[in-house]
Amino acid sequence: MKKTISLLLILCALLSLVGCKKYKPVKSSELESTTVYTISHGGKSFEVKYELYRALFLNLKSAVDGGDETVWSGEDKEQYIEKIDATILAFTADIYAALLLAESIGVNLYDKASEKKIESYIKTSIEGGTIDGETVSGVGSYEEYLRVLKSKGLNYSVQVLLYRYAMAVEAIEEHYIGTFSSDDISGSVDKGAIEYTEDDVRAFYESDGCVRVLRHFIQAGIAGEETEAYAERVRGYILDAAPDGDDAVANTIMANGNLTAWEEVKNGYVMGRYNLDRAYFGEMTDAAFALAEGEVSEVIRVADITSDGYYILYRAEKSEEHFDECYSSICYVYLKNKVGEALEDIRLSLTESISATDFFKGLDRAAISMD
User: Fold this and answer.
1) Where are the alpha helices (DSSP H) in the chain?
2) Rg of the Cα trace of the chain?
3) What is the largest CA-CA distance in the chain?
4) pLDDT by residue (tens digit) across 323-339?
5) Whole-number Å distance between alpha carbons of 84 and 330
6) In Å, how far are 63, 99, 101, 171 from 104, measured between CA atoms?
7) pTM for this one?
């Protein structure tokens, strides 16, 4: 599974690459340009603006408040603020870690080619075109494009930042991993800068830094307000099947409306500590590594700007047979994990360097909106 960072996919239904007509950038307001905090790494600092904090807050708050917006002004608001601030900081650090790592490998995300690419994203979001061979309809006008951005909690500047983030992630993966995917690892594809052998991949697979899980995913909203209760019920079915082993759990997962393809359910999903985005999948990753073989996790809420749902994990056994049959996907996870580890080092440095402004300290979360 190749997950280009989910934050940048907000307008995935709109993006394409054609044309050269320019649309005039929209300047951020004084409030939007206000610094909430500064983060730094390796002598380079970034002033994180209110417009980015606002975008993340508006898109992530439902996973924290459960739809009850009164919590942001209630007696227990501080515990909710602490939780969402940690999540927002993690996402923010992910963005700037990618920009820094891309810069370190010689990628200029502010050169003419990059600016032209961003212009083409915007143009085709409006006028339509194709991307990766898929035809996409545009929204018709620049005014509508800006309206769509606003409806998603974004403004022009934040969307441009997310475009740069997308380009950074793409460049990083191409540099370190190469052109193959989890289904295509062979001598016929271009390898990246990471040098490895099958023994390296095997050592990773057999280590404590790698787990194999069977995952059940339930999309939020499928059972109305009772989705979490439904997820708990499905977890009970998986718990009942767990003593009978991996096959019984896989069959139970498929029998209960799982959205994961049968091939993955049967083979399981191999995870490292860093191959998935920590800001998005951190809780799920920690839960997977906390399980013993044969154990079932609690229901885990995973939400970001583009998707929202619940995961239930079962820790499956690793085996030589599984390694041989699924080598390509395991190798891909190994490579993604190596890249993720490099990004994590930068992200942690950025997170630990946070210096909040007085504006941020006095910010009223209940008042945050696009109005």
Assistant:
1) 50-65, 77-104, 112-127, 142-151, 156-176, 198-206, 227-241, 246-254, 262-267, 278-290, 320-325, 327-352, 358-361
2) 22
3) 62
4) 999 999 999 999 999 99
5) 33
6) 34, 9, 5, 11
7) 0.85
